[in-house]
Amino acid sequence: MSNITGVTRGGVEWVPAFITELNQSNCIGCGRCFKACPRDVFDLVEREEATAADDDDYEDDYYDDDDDGFSDDTSMVMSLKNLMDCIGCEACSRVCPKNCMSHQPQPVVA
Question: What count of Cα atoms within 13 Å lies in the side-chain half-sphere of residue 66?
Fold first, then answer.
């Protein structure tokens, strides 16, 4: 099966690589991917919402003795909101300082 291809304005074919995964454990919640994405693929969520499914994986270094219960680290992370709206431009990966995104070409679906 062949992959989805695009054509530039100049007529050159290219193969877009669509986002397939976002590693929230590496995400620092900087919002760069959110700002770079032209298609509203990402959403900024509370870190505990992203990890609420398994509290055992919630690392102790996110906590401290301050009033709010969190360390100075960010308590927000990116999540994939509209994965199917990705156009494969990879702008998010180019601006991500932590290399949180995985991309790959996708097959044409008939």
Answer: 10
10: its two tokens: 């100049």
Rounded CA gap, 105 and 17, in Å?
Answer: 4
Q: With contact defined as beta carbons under 8 Å apart, do 86 and 94 qualify?
A: no
Distance CA 6, CA 87 (A): 10
- Tens of pLDDT, residue by residue over 28-84, are 999 999 999 999 999 999 987 665 544 544 444 444 444 544 444 558 999 999 999
Range of the domain at 26: 6-104
CATH of the domain at 81: 3.30.70.20
Place of tokens 């919630």: 58
